[in-house]
Each structure stands twice: as C-alpha cells, then as structure tokens.
Specification:
Blueprint (H helix, E strand, L loop, with lengths): L17 H4 L2 H15 L23 E3 L14 H5 L5 E7 L12 E9 L8 H5 L5 E3 L14 E2 L1 H4 L9
Antiparallel strand pairs: 1-4, 2-3, 3-5
Length: 167
Amino acid sequence: MQALTNRAKAVDRRPMTFAEKMYIPAIAKGMGITFKHLFQKKATVSFPEKTRDFSPVFRGLHVLNRDEEGRERCTACGLCAVACPAEAITMEAAERKEGEEHLYREEKYAAKYEINMLRCIFCGFCEEACPKDAVYMSETFAPANYQRKGFIYGKDDLLIPHPKEGK
C-alpha cells in the first residue's frame, strides 16, 4: 500500500554507536533548542499590568441592550432560548402594564431572563437569533466564582445601565 503523503520515513534499524548510547547528541540538541528559546520573545502576558488584545470575533459575556430612550429592547420572543444549543437561556414573558411605556419598548417584555454561564458555550447563536438586537456578546469574560449560583446571571446583571439615570 502506498502512503498518502511523502512524510513517511523508513525506520533506521542499525545498532547505536557509543556516542548515541550515551545520548550526548540528543542532550546537546535539546540544550540548543532551550538556549534558542531563551532569547526569543515571551508568549505569556503579565496579566494585571498588561492585557492581551481580543480577536475581532471574540464572544464574551452576554449583555441585554437598551434603546436610545433607555427602554429594554427585549420583547421576550424566545428566539434566543430556542437558538441556544446548550439550553442555557431561560425566560418568562409578561405584558406591559399601563404607565410602563418608559420602561419597555413593546407590549410584551421579559419579566425573567436568566443565562446559566456554566452551560453557555459562547457560540453567539442567541445574538444572531435576536430580531431586536437586544442580546449581544461583549468583550469581557466571565469572572471567577466559588459557587454555581454565582454563574447564573439574571436580568438585572445583564442589562446595561439606564442612560438617563447615569447623568
């Protein structure tokens, strides 16, 4: 049978010489590689002082967006929850009441919106499925936590701050 690539080498079966038995050439070759890497640029980053640039396609933590007037964009259509292959998103819809027009954009809104970050695989399907651009993925990553319940983010954790309250 012929090999698919030309990378195959025949195995050398001749007996080892005295120098090869002492492994001196192999040790010298290894030390040469070590010294070569000693003077190259380091691949690691001193994290707290320096941060590495994110890739333009990096998908981090989820954020629930607001419109220009500060109202929630999410209409609780459930497309993000259906699109999520890990089933990490749960939501409950509610009807907007009289006098809440300044809080919610549509008649229906998400009364409960939770993302389990331990189940999330950061695929970005929720962001693509949202017709109102309410869900997007930021350039921050999930902070460390000691308990599982700390990784379940509710609506209040995900919503960006109200633009008019910050002034």
